[in-house]
Amino acid sequence: MDTAGKILVVDDEERIRRLIRMYLERDEYEIDEAENGADALQKALKNDYSVILLDIMMPKMDGIEVCRELRKEKETPVIMLTAKGEESNRVQGFETGADDYIVKPFSPREVVLRVKALLRRVSSSSFKDADVEARDILVFPHLTIDHDAHRVTADGKEVALTPKEYELLCFLAKSPDKVFHREELLKEVWQYEFFGDLRTVDTHVKRLREKLNSISPEAAKMIVTVWGVGYKFEVDEV
């Protein structure tokens, strides 16, 4: 029987790993485990996982550092797990490239639902169930976003983006020339409100621009800062 996906569960508490494993395996996910940050990073770099469930407070290397190092090499979707619900930890997790965030204590069912929701967003196969009649593609000068394939290309070369970077780019690109406040981007893309702390948006925009710029400076210029307000996606008329 085919599995629904391979997931790495990282937590220093065996009880939590066992509980998450039990619920995810019921939904036919294949589970791998790590009990500390160093082992987690080694496994994450060596293997291809559909999602990584990553605890923040761990021995040897914390989850923030694991995510930071992972993002230098791979764009594997990451859901942070932590006992701390403070706003600063959530922001820090997103700034290092996490795609979602769950605060302990949590319901195992919530974890399963979050995993499924994230996989729906990042999996090109999810479009098979969406009753899409034609390919969903946005084409601009120097940049193409193919939603069906979940692929972004700049000047013909593929751009490796994290799920959240991809969502941010798509959200902006779907409304060219419309200015979005940072608060609005937080609500629509992250579905969280940070009560005035807007560093997450700025960090992701910076990282997105850097990735685009490494392939196509012209594509990177399409993400425009509107000072004192937010950002917009601008298409030059040719």
Structure description:
This protein starts with a strand and ends in a 5-residue tail after the last strand. It folds into 2 domains: 5-122, Rossmann fold, CATH 3.40.50.2300; 131-233, Arc Repressor Mutant, subunit A, CATH 1.10.10. The chain is globular, with a radius of gyration of 18 Å. The protein has helices spanning 14-26, 37-46, 63-70, 87-95, 108-122, 163-173, 182-190, 199-213, 217-220; strands spanning 5-10, 29-34, 51-55, 78-82, 100-103, 137-140, 143-146, 151-154, 157-158, 180-181, 223-226, 230-233. The model is unreliable at 124-134 (pLDDT under 50). The protein is of the alpha/beta class. The protein is 39% helix and 21% strand. The strands form 3 sheets. It has a 5-stranded parallel β-sheet with strand order 2-1-3-4-5, with helices on both faces. It has a 4-stranded antiparallel β-sheet with strand order 6-7-8-9, with helices on one face. It has a 3-stranded antiparallel β-sheet with strand order 10-12-11. α1 packs across α5 (108-122), α2 runs parallel beside α3 (63-70) and α4 (87-95) packs parallel to α8.
Record keyword descriptors for this entry.
single chain, about 240 residues, alpha/beta, Rossmann fold, Arc Repressor Mutant, subunit A, 2 domains, five-stranded parallel beta sheet, four-stranded antiparallel beta sheet, 12 strands, about 40% helix
The helix tally amounts to 9
Oligomer: single chain
- First and last CA, distance: 52 Å
> In the CATH hierarchy, what is the architecture of the largest domain at level 2?
3-Layer(aba) Sandwich
- The CATH class name of the largest domain reads Alpha Beta
Mean pLDDT: 84
According to CATH, the homologous superfamily of the largest domain is Response regulator
Shape estimate: globular
How many domains?
A: 2
> What is the β-strand count?
12
Give the CATH topology of the largest domain. Rossmann fold
The secondary structure category is: alpha/beta
